[in-house]
Protein 1
Amino acid sequence: MSGRGRRITDEEINELVCKLQSLLPESRHSNTGRASASKLLKETCSYIKSLHREVDGLSDQLSGLMATMDSNSPQADIIRSLLRS
């Protein structure tokens, strides 16, 4: 994007902020116009942390499910194949 040593322009920052805002779920940012860059970065960090928590929870659930399954069952084979892809 920007070359080494070249300062990023305000226009480029605004474009990146808009792109970042478009990646957040609607519930994470207000619909009353564009958020400030610092508020948007805080919301993004919070959203990423919540995604990490969700992944950890799903991983724990999957581990528990795998522990209760017969390792030779067709369901266990399906889960293993999904995890490999």
Protein 2
Amino acid sequence: MSDRLEDWIGEDHLVRVVDLFVDELDLPALGFARSAPARTGRPGYHPAVLLKLFIYGYLNRIPSSRRLEREAGRNVELMWLTGRLVPDHKTIADFRRDNGPGIRRSCAQFVELSRRIGVLKGACVAIDGSKFRAVNSRDRNFTKGKIASRIAHLEADVERYIAEMVRVDRQEEGEVRAEKVAHLAKRYGRVRQHIQHLQAMGRALADAPDGQISLTDPDARAMATSARNSGMVGYNVQTAVDTETHLIVAHEVTNQGHDRDLLVPMAKAAKDALRRDEMHVLADKGYFSGRQILACHKARITTTIPRPETSGNRLKGMYEKANFAYEANADIYRCPAGEALPYRYTTEEDGLELRRYWTSECGTCLMKSRCTTGKERRITRWAHEHLVEAARARLIGPTEPMTIRRGTVEHPFGTIKAWMGTSHFLTRRLRNVKTEIALNVLAYNIKRMVALIGVQGLMSALKA
């Protein structure tokens, strides 16, 4: 039967890449459980079989353990790949749950293969994050504000039920009155019970470190999205994507709702994966942080990142800090009126060394109304402001780095989200969600490598 199955699998079939890739992995070194069978008892399924099954599933948008069980018994490609073994869905699901670290290392091994054969050079990577929906609805996520709002609505319902019971008791008679009052009392009791539940949830919320409780997936968190007045309960998935090949060189999953502190860990993870001495990173304004840019500079990572607009002066028609030119030789700022703002003193705020500049000529300046409402306009300069200015200067150029960033890093997110469907994750808890993302990233990278060098080229690289 194996010979006949072989006839169905062409030499350029993607399933051969999966088979060869897993066979070339050192599964015990990667941390997979049960790589060596026990001396006694019936041997379990070898992790290579289950890993092949999962990689095939994510390559073909079949992430469910129950669907994989069905496919293993009827899909010719899977029959060839697994040697006609058909694990049950519980065994398949347990393998994904228990071997998360090994699966994530397997994903990293494919990135290393791409680097080793020279396809992935990684001189420049784009970093971005995207919110993925968790197995937890918004109604099953609680914050202090949500609880207060719901209790207020429920207490209004209580007042309405009480008023209605009083009205019925006065105006109705006989059995109709008794029936209506009993019905309202029952609804009143349910509402009071719900209020007590929310109050207990509020007391438990006081012990939550980040002020949130999710009931279905305890690790999921409410996160804002780009759409106005919208959000979801989910996870923040981070990727670093090579701008030349569009391969995902590093990824991470966090339940932190913003990206401000993630530039350094993602950039360093990409640099380590690519084994580069120096690297260039593109990121959007959500990652902007002076501390993060300085840490990247110390790690020999060049950053190109826009500075977010935090002042409302431009909308008011007033001058912004960008309208004041810094002259490094004289250590002064030149205002739009041409006056020099000399250095005055240095202070420290939140661990940052800040230098203050101003002039006493503002009082007689005809442009003062467009500059400041105070006595004088003061400019603050961070001790490492030149790094921020250099990052901003790199934004202006013929290569249009932000266009490159958008065209590089947003496509993989769109592809992976389309594969995962509207529900995104199937599993709960951060550790399991990380495993799901690793399998999706591995599937994406395999398909991308096949597009770059073909099935035969990839198989030749795996054998080398």
Protein 3
Amino acid sequence: MELNRYIDHTLLAPDATEEQIDTVIQQAIDNHFHTVMVNPYWVTKVHQALQGTDVVTACVIGFPLGANTTKIKVAEAQDAIENGVDEIDMVMNIGELKSGHDDKVAADIQAVVNAGHQANKIVKVILETCLLTDDEITRASQMAADAGADFVKTSTGFSTEGATVHAVEIMAAAVKGTRTAVKASGGIHSTAEAEAMIKAGATRLGVSHSMEVIGKK
């Protein structure tokens, strides 16, 4: 199994330096990862550096809490698009889902999906599965699929736990038969862990330890 093209090579640390961003970019180019995933500030730099390669630029939106207003999430997405982003990973409104306000969660997701798709960009929806019940994971996954999201994603990597095989299996079952795929992200540190997520139904992986996962470090 060639893992390289599953991987969104990720650096979202608040103290990430320009030198570290440069390193991640070069690693992604050298190893043909799918994307370089960064915070919105770095999108312009990453996009310019990846020109002419088989790696694309990705960033997070409403990160890491998902509690921004919809207007701000859309504006942040549009700014990233103007700066050259190819894929957008938005954090859904977790508190509103847990409040049972599914209509508000769905509208928030739909607005960002629309902004992305109008510019022909990939949109992923981060659920933060460690904070959700199995039923809430199912509901949120179905909402993302109903909104036309390209992926539903497990985690930010900034909460109490990252991706689990159990959560990926629930998400995969919830979106089965739709155009929406599953991304496992957070806490994937080895080839075995990556392969377990793929076996559970993930077709994309968010990884900050990508070199270890592909067996090069």
Protein 4
Amino acid sequence: MSGEAAWPGPLAGLRVLDLTRVLAGPLATQFLGDLGAEILKVEPPGKGDDTRGFAPFVGGESHYFLGLNRNKKSLVIDLRAPEGAEALRRLAATADVLVENFRPGVMDRLGLGWEALSALNPRLIYCAITGFGLSGPLREAPSFDIVTQALTGVLSVNGERGRPPVKLGLPVGDMSGGIFGAQAILAALHERHATGRGRLIDVSLYDGTMALLGYLAQLAFATGADPEPMGNAHPSVVPYGSFPAKDGAIIIACLADGFWPKLCAALGLDDLGADPRLATMAGRRAHRGEIEPRIAAVTPARSVAEWQEALTAADVPHAPILGVRAALAHPHAAARAMVVEVEHPAAGTLRLLGRPVKFPDAPAPQPPLAPPPLLGQHTAEVLRGVGYAEAEIEALRARGVIDRIERP
């Protein structure tokens, strides 16, 4: 950074209590940490976040945990112990945001729910991320990603045409909770500037995933029929999808009418480009059965690389189908700093995904990402910051209220 002072990010000075585990909640707080907030991840005694036990491991650390917990501090506190609950209350008094993803009612039973903590700190923004929300007939039901995908209709539209649907490879159900959770917290922070008060936020994986249906919901409303799996094709856009090449497949996405004649010229299908029936998206959709086989008959003549060259020259949207390793190694990923290296105290040099949001006109670069924390790495440090004396910390540790850790 050439000796230049780092810009911590737009959320610098914000303290977030992170009582989440697995995916949705940790993703939300990781986003906030990327933006400069201080994230205090409070983990249960024993083995901490469930994902710390998910194989494979790097230097004894779970790949899953490493992927969702950068830029955080780890505290091990037993919230079921009265002294642990008191420690959480003292932390909440200093916090701007609390995020939890327990089932509804768990935090209330611990005496650490919204009403109790907002009475202690009226400025606290309290975000509850749950499977089905704080209300409704499924409120108490357990939920995981595949359940959410199934119940929201998302699973039903994924897969190859004419075959049973399959879940998305990405855990979109869980990730929707993280994305919308972070968005809602930022909105509540904006409101707090005007009101001076915090707010309870109710984010559910169910609502978030259903919201991602977007135009597919409108398609169902408009036609009265369920959208069906289309494979790599699109229900409304033609041509759009995967076509065979000599050595694999090439993705072609003709999302606007202006790309159609360019594509036809690149493919050598001038008759299709000149056909007035096919000049509009509606016309091409009506003649999908004619267009897609014609394209699929041409594309096997060249390799993926040759089609990339031809379609780039023609300014037609296209892509090779990259594996995850190839995607991470792509020059554009490097140019966008989407893969970074950090030094982890146990795992050594780690490659992590980079920050997805950039600020080109920031006063200085943001500091490098901090590695995901070791279990309980920051308990004593953070408790000192809220007034605990060394003797108190040692007494809590001796009673197993903090830093009670099971080593594998």
